[in-house]
Amino acid sequence: MRPILQRPVTFLSLRSTRPIPSRSLKITRFNSTKASEAAQSHLSWPEYLAIRANRRRWQNAMTIPCSLLGLFTGASYFGSLDTDPTKVIFGIDPFFFYGICTTACMGFGYLMGPTLGNAIWRFSHRRAGALIDARDREFYQHITKRRVDASLQSPTSPVPDYYGEKIGSLHQYRQWLRDQGKYRRKAVLPED
User: Transmembrane residues, as ranges (predicted)?
Assistant: First the structure.
């Protein structure tokens, strides 16, 4: 073990603003721990929102390759099946049915893309995973506390960005707050 602080720590007294020296307290850390771990125990909001925007980009970027993979997999599987054009499948011509199934495979790839993108992103950022998860919980508490009640929406006027998915910076967060307030005023006090 080696000491982090080389000089004595001073504390402020509750009764006066004059520092009281303390020679008995010495903060130490083990040599096996890194100093950067202690320094990076906090993630600021701009850093978190930049990380969140990066994660969203990864999720969206993985949608295209996963969709194409689903399309090619479905086409190769259903294209290689022997078909009898005289026999219908679920009352549909076999070629149309296999085409629908191929499109469904592409849709499945489209739905799996964000999940796979998030998994790859989390694997590449696993060191800061605990910090990001803690900020995620705090961020979603902010969102649920400040968003508009969903019962106020109508089919013609949905709530803008209900889950706050498009927030990627402090500016966008402030804009989201303004949009929520504007929608709340419009829903509660409709214009005549």
Answer: 61-80, 95-117
Q: Give the per-residue pLDDT at 33.
A: 55
The token pair at 1 is 């073990």
Task: Tell me which residue of 160, 162, 129 sits closest to 55, measured CA to CA.
Answer: 129
DSSP run (H or E) holding 54: helix 45-61
- Print burial letters for 33-46: b (CB count within 10 Å at least 16), e (below 16): eeeeeeeeeebeee
Block means of pLDDT (10 residues each) for the chain, length 192 residues?
50 49 53 54 85 91 95 92 81 87 95 94 88 91 89 82 87 92 82 60
Q: Round to whole Å and give the CA distance between 177 and 154.
A: 20
User: What are the extents of the domains in the chain?
Assistant: 58-130
- Beta-carbon-side half-sphere exposure of residue 65 (alpha carbons within 13 Å): 8
Give this prediction's pTM: 0.64
Helix (H/G/I), strand (E/B), else coil: 137: helix
The number of residues making up the chain comes to 192
In angstroms, how far is CA 74 from the centroid of its own chain?
Answer: 30
168 in Cβ contact with 188 (< 8 Å): no
